[in-house]
Amino acid sequence: AQKITQTQPGMFVQEKEAVTLDCTYDTSDPSYGLFWYKQPSSGEMIFLIYQGSYDQQNATEGRYSLNFQKARKSANLVISASQLGDSAMYFCAIPRRPQGGSEKLVFGKGTKLTVNP
Amino acid sequence: NAGVTQTPKFQVLKTGQSMTLQCAQDMNHNSMYWYRQDPGMGLRLIYYSASEGTTDKGEVPNGYNVSRLNKREFSLRLESAAPSQTSVYFCASSEVGDEQRGTDTQYFGPGTRLTVL
Fold first, then answer.
1. What is the pLDDT of residues B73-86, one digit of tens each?
2. d(Cα B92, Cα A93) in Å, to the nearest integer?
């Protein structure tokens, strides 16, 4: 079964600095991918970035990038030039797709990021 | 496009009362999902619907029923609410996962905060 581990309950970073949020995973699927979502204090879940296991290059979306290391089973989120608005919970998720079924996401417990001015 | 909408935003119930959470999406997605989020637990899948006319249980289905009313709408019903169902409920939707094309992103609604007294 798929499993996601986020070992950092809370992280602090100074504004304009970069921060890395850790995510390790366990899956038996030969083909898989990793999602990162952001949940600000307002509560909504915002999709940030995705990378498939078959992608050769690490995914990048603006200030967000995925540091995907399959041998270590890790898919860390890197946020460059942190902004105050980046303060939020961040969740890593991996799809679970039973035979013939649609995908369901398995989430980690999240990391709370606080950006200090 | 409104994306995924949920009603109500907040609800307080007494133990034993029933209610239905509504979800609608305007992205023409085939798959829809209901998750619950409890403190320190991340999101857990309650039920999902791979396509119109089909529903299936997720990780924590007990105490809930669902209806895929049409392609746009997917409702979650609590027949006899219990304090253990106090949570934030998220609806999500996605295209059906295509193994050749890769995983499809799940997009979330704003959530319903439910308290059962």
1. 999 999 999 999 99
2. 14
